[in-house]
Design a protein that fits this description.
The complex is a heterodimer. Chain A is α+β, with helices and mostly antiparallel strands. Chain A is built from eleven helices and twelve strands. The longest helix of chain A has 19 residues. In chain B, the strands form two sheets. In chain B, strands 1-2 form a two-stranded antiparallel sheet. A two-stranded antiparallel ribbon of chain B has the order 3-4. In chain B, α3 crosses α4. The N and C termini of chain B lie far apart (67 Å). Classes of the chains: A alpha+beta, B alpha+beta. Chains A and B meet through α6, α10, β10 and α11 of A and β3 of B.
């Protein structure tokens, strides 16, 4: 099999995009190989929507994918498809009065979630504001490239932003292929095999939380996290959109670990838990602290709560 | 009449049993924490302090020179137990181990202690729906100068405009800087 075609298995979105572009199946299918050897290309092309697959179908898709990844990356990935836990609605809290802007979370996230290192993709962006400045409404004007020798800096505060896991997500509404949706536990997910890379969702997201793979995702081989979830940190393809999933591969277990960003935060500014559990730390924050959400006036209803503990 | 001593023995036995259970329960710390962040070799303190005369005067110390108090207006023995240096002592006179130093801090920082117990001040790691590990206040606040110490930030993101279509070879891919940090608290 020629090398380019083999690689294309992992870039199936291109075939799908070619199909849309061509407008006619006949034209597009010219791009697809014929014959037995390439059965998996056809399998990938004909794969059903995630929500329409039964368990067996999903398992066979995952098998195929694990094989493709092993060939492409020379690394064995384990891809889970764990379903939402019953009675769980995830919520996140961030104490802005503690955050010191050290960016540990940014890179712990990268380590956990197999983002491309080159070109660089970060799911968390830490914004720096001057104290007293007008801010929540003008996130776009915040400084993101600050690099002093030490943080926190006098007269500044910091606010990390990532996917806000909206109850009412505008990104989901605009997706023409239903490649992104909200799961029962509140996590907004992307199926990288259905994403056609049109980036409507990126335009619709008011938080700049979605990121596009412009180039071929690249990462040093030894740095891959092989414990993955289909809807989370499995390696992505060139030309698809990705974002924070509250570490779905960790949190959707019983017991499940805290997200990587919560685990690393040296100041303990990051809080995570079940909004439906009255004893969870996130409920404590909502009930005892003055919480707010970003761009509340847009009615996106994020499940990401910011607060000032003091 | 011969039976009475047996009954008494039994009562005594039950009493002792209950007493032991109550004591044991008292010994189990309520919050699971990693070991206190002592400097190497300093614990047990009794290694030096056993038999050493206790001097309650406020003074320049000829030892522990690295400790300069910059906290409330107090002195070492407001926190450290004069009679057994391997323990701390609360204002009530209650003696507690270093693994429970949060009770010491909680005396004066009640609101923060309340948030801490709920997992909101400070941090917990482990399972969000299972076993959690707290951090002691002193993992983040050196009790003698408790202000949180500044950290070196990890690098800023690269400007996306420089970044879009870069082609790189395998050995040009940068490694994750998070692997190089050695923060005490991880």
């Amino acid at each position: 099999m020629p090398k380019e075609i083999k690689n294309n298995i992992l870039q199936k979105p291109f075939s799908r995009r070619a199909l849309l572009k061509g407008g006619a199946l006949g034209l597009a299918s010219l791009a697809l190989p014929v014959g037995n050897a390439d059965a998996s290309v056809w399998e990938a092309f004909l794969q059903k929507h995630f929500k329409e697959m039964n368990d067996d179908e999903l398992q066979s898709v995952i098998k195929r994918m694990e094989k493709e990844y092993a060939e492409k990356y020379n690394v064995n990935f384990n891809i889970k498809s764990t379903k939402p836990l019953p009675g769980t609605l995830f919520g996140y809290g961030l104490d802005v009065s503690r955050c010191i802007g050290c960016r540990r979370c940014v890179y712990a996230c990268v380590k956990e979630n197999n983002q491309s290192m080159e070109p660089q993709i970060h799911w968390i962006t830490v914004l720096r504001f001057k104290k007293g400045e007008k801010w929540v409404s003008s996130l776009e004007e915040a400084e993101v490239y600050y690099a002093p020798p030490e943080v926190p800096e006098e007269g500044h505060f910091y606010m990390p932003v990532q996917c806000q896991q909206c109850e009412n997500p505008p990104c989901v509404k605009v997706c023409p292929t239903q490649a992104t949706w909200k799961e029962r536990d509140g996590i907004v997910v992307v199926d990288y095999n259905w994403c056609i890379g049109c980036r409507y969702c990126m335009a619709a997201c008011p938080y700049g939380a979605r990121h596009f793979n412009w180039g071929q995702p690249n990462r040093a081989k030894q740095e891959y996290n092989t414990e993955t979830h289909y809807l989370g940190n499995r390696p992505r393809y060139k030309g698809v959109v990705e974002k924070c999933t509250f570490c779905i591969q960790r949190t959707r277990e019983n017991p499940g670990r805290y997200p990587a960003c919560v685990e690393i935060c040296p100041v303990g500014a990051r809080k995570f838990g079940n909004l439906l559990d009255p004893d969870s730390e996130i409920r404590y924050c909502i009930e005892n602290k003055r919480v707010f959400r970003l761009k509340e006036d847009l009615n996106t209803s994020p499940k990401f709560y910011y607060f000032f503990a003091t | 009449m011969q039976k009475i001593p047996y009954v008494l023995y039994f009562a005594l036995f039950v009493f002792l049993l209950l007493f032991e259970v109550a004591k044991a329960k008292d010994d189990i710390p309520e919050f699971f924490v990693p070991p206190p962040p002592f400097s190497e070799g300093i614990f047990p303190c009794s290694g030096c302090h056993k038999g050493m005369e206790v001097n309650t005067n406020r003074r320049e110390l000829s030892y522990h020179e690295d400790i300069k108090l910059k906290h409330f207006d107090g002195w070492c023995l407001d926190c450290h137990n004069p009679n057994d240096r391997d323990k701390l002592r609360l204002a009530s006179g209650k003696v507690i181990p270093f693994t429970e130093s949060y009770y010491l801090c909680g005396q004066c920082h009640g609101d923060i202690f309340r948030d801490w117990k709920a997992g909101v001040h400070g941090k917990r790691t482990g399972m969000w729906n299972g076993k959690k590990e707290y951090r002691l206040c002193v993992h983040c606040h050196w009790p003698h100068q408790p202000r949180f110490r500044p950290l070196e930030p990890l690098p800023p993101p690269v400007n996306p405009e420089d970044n879009k279509y870069k082609k790189v070879t395998q050995d040009q891919i940068p490694l994750n800087p998070v692997n190089n940090i050695s923060d005490k608290l991880r």
